[in-house]
Amino acid sequence: MKDVLFYQNYSPVADISTMAICIIFVFLLQSTYTIKQRNLTLFRITDFSLVVAAAASVFYHQTVDRMTPGNYVLVYFFRDISYIALMFTYVVFCCYIRNLVNMTSKRRKIYNIIVWSVFAVFSLLEIISPITKFGFYIDRDMHIHQNYYFDLFRFAYLFYGCITVFIMIIYRKKFVTKMFRCICYVLLTSYSLIIAQSFFLQTSYTCITFTFPIMALLFLFHYNGYDTITGTLDSKAFNSYIHDMHGGSFSLVCMGLQDMNYDKMQEMSEPFFNIYGKYFKNPCTFRIRDDKLVMVYHVKKGRDKERGSMLLKDLSDLYEQYKLDYHIVLIHSNNVLVRGDEYLSMSDYIEANMPLNTVYECNDADVESYVKSRLILSSLQDINQRQDLNDERVRVYCQPVLNTKTNTFTSAEALMRLVLPECGMVFPDQFIPLAERYGYIHTLSRIILNKTCRQIRELEQNGYQIDRISVNFSILELRDKNFCDDIVDIIRQNDISYDKVAVELTESRNEKDFENVRKIMNSLQKLGVKFYLDDFGTGYSNFERIIGLPIDIIKFDRSLTIMAGKNKESRFLVESFSDIFQRSNYQILFEGVEDEKDETQCKEMNALYLQGYKYSKPIPIEQLAGFLKKAG
Question: Is 321 helix (H, G, I), strand (E, B) or coil?
Fold first, then answer.
């Protein structure tokens, strides 16, 4: 059939624009810091093939207009190059989509065989069309024969379009909703343009319709915080996603993974997707860090809570299958939490107190606790920045210590409290872990030491007898090379004797910490500072380590006081510990003495000092004078 109308309607503007856009893509890729992933290589290939197709299309139509018996072969050549390059572009595009959905190896092989076989068949038919007279050919009279609507290329275009749509529908759950919709809209635009130009018997816009989906993929999956290997978005996309979700009802499954790496993540991506799609429609997964995944799903129906519980169970089984330690935290949307980083911070806050390989569902009380911790952390940050050793927000409480030989209170333990306008009284278990985690603990300790020394000076000036007051220090603080100088400077500035201060330390199992602690203790002990070993009987205890440290007083934890009162065997064990230390010239202090029975048994077990609620609960250090005697 002779049909040259669509050649006459051709304009090279669209093809030249396609070449210009593709060249600009090359410049953009060379000038940005996009991660060079495998799919980006596929994009480069499509970019090159589109330039070839568009250029060949321009030459093809120019040759048709000037066709003579001497150059009609060039018409075949440029036409074949243009259409084969376009089909190749679509094949690579299909491979790109294949990689995005992370097909199984078996499906991948079948898929590859289909798309490449079809490409080979249509390319061959296109090349031999002058012989078969099927599709496009030129007769001896230089007349072009082709049915516009039954062209080989259009059949190939229709096939690849159908397979692309089919794959995207089948693997719908592996795409982020917004991205899926965007790709659909772009493909619809391209297909609509192809239909429109068919209506006007045009071929001018064929090449440029291929640039639209390629452009969309480049932007969505290489400049949008998207990991094309694992099918997850990053933390920036997460914050944007939560911002868009604000006011809606949704839940987050926050997964903290131990010893996770990129290869393991890629291996687990397929089971992850299958689990999410099993219970929820259109969930979205984010890879915040190597060890942190977050899945967000909409909550619309009453069964969603039940589904969430079932999902958590399946995730736990999955982690056990891959031999990974984990924390899983389920957080429901809450008006108090607005930004994505607030949800992530709350997840980290909850995980910090969770045993490994456990699942926890947050409630309103957890949100309140988290908000309070944020307020505390903000205050700690401000206290650390100000470096005011008299900061009124840091209060010193103390608990008097009874000397069993003199039956008088001659020492005490200083205890730290925070008093904040937003939270009121804040106890150590609420702020010490935060202070240690964020590096504010030494500032707090310096403030407590300064206020304690100031109170000791005041007591002495008023004639009270005080042997010493002990101050707790974190083992983390002794890693600071300025630790000794800080302690010495504060004691000197308050003009008191070094032996009026004692430092309480909890034993460390870290070899490096142990050596550092011993060096620092020796330096301070030479000046007269006393040292307590706190919480003996809890956690890690090693006699060799204890004997290797210049300890003056060993504090037996409340748990040992309770153990001694259970039965004869327990009493014998605790008493043996105490006897060993006494013979080794250590002084013994028992904590947690609450009644006469505790007091009696502790005295029988060599206790020189007793501390507990029997004598006093923690009191403001200004009230300590009420327990002390005056000299003379």
Answer: helix
Tell me the C-alpha distance between 90 and 11, whole Å.
23
Token duo for residue 30? 């060379």
Alpha-carbon gap, residue 170 to 618, rounded angstroms: 66
**239, 340 in Cβ contact below 8 A?**
yes
Give the separation between CA 261 and CA 467, rounded to whole angstroms.
Answer: 56
pLDDT digits (tens, 9 = 90+) for 255-280: 887 776 666 666 666 666 556 556 66
* 10 secondary structure, DSSP code: -
Indicate the helix (H) or strand (E) that contains 185: helix 177-199
Length of the chain: 632
> What is the model's pLDDT at position 46?
87
Cα–Cα separations (whole angstroms), residue 292 to 163, 316, 329, 486: 35, 15, 11, 39
From CA 292, how far away is CA 244, in angstroms rounded? Answer: 21
**3-state class (DSSP) for residue 389:** coil
Amino acid at 583: R
In the chain, the domains with their CATH numbers are: 5-225 (1.20.1070.10), 232-362 (3.30.70.270), 388-627 (3.20.20.450)
What is the C-alpha separation between 224 and 540, in angstroms, rounded?
Answer: 48
Contact 5, 203 (CB under 8 A): no
